[in-house]
Specification:
Blueprint (H helix, E strand, L loop, with lengths): L1 H93 L1
Length: 95
C-alpha cells in the first residue's frame, strides 16, 4: 500500500503546487493585459481629445473670419442702401 500511496501523494502535491503557481502566473498575465488595454484606451482618448482641440481651434478661427466678413458685408450693404435711397430721391425730384 505504501508503494502506491507515497508516489500518488507526491504526484498530487507536485501537481497542486504547480497549479497554484500557474494560477498566480495566469492572474498576473491577466492584470498585465488589463493594464495594457487601459494604457491603449488612454492613448486613444488622448489622441481623440488632441484632434478635437485642433478642430475646435480651426473652427473658432473660421468663425472669427466669417464674423469679420459679415461685418464688412453689412457695411457694404448699408452703403448700397444709402446710395439707393439717394438715387430714389434724385429720381423722384426729376419727374
Amino acid at each position: 500500500m505504501e508503494q502506491f500511496l507515497y508516489p500518488t501523494l507526491t504526484a498530487f502535491f507536485a501537481a497542486f503546487i504547480t497549479w497554484l503557481f500557474s494560477m498566480r502566473k495566469s492572474l498576473a498575465e491577466d492584470r498585465a493585459a488589463e493594464l495594457d488595454n487601459a494604457v491603449n484606451a488612454v492613448k486613444y482618448y488622448r489622441d481623440l481629445l488632441d484632434d478635437i482641440t485642433a478642430r475646435l481651434t480651426a473652427a473658432t478661427e473660421t468663425i472669427k473670419k466669417m464674423e469679420i466678413q459679415h461685418r464688412e458685408l453689412m457695411v457694404i450693404n448699408q452703403q448700397l442702401v444709402d446710395e439707393l435711397q439717394k438715387f430714389k430721391q434724385l429720381n423722384g425730384k426729376q419727374q
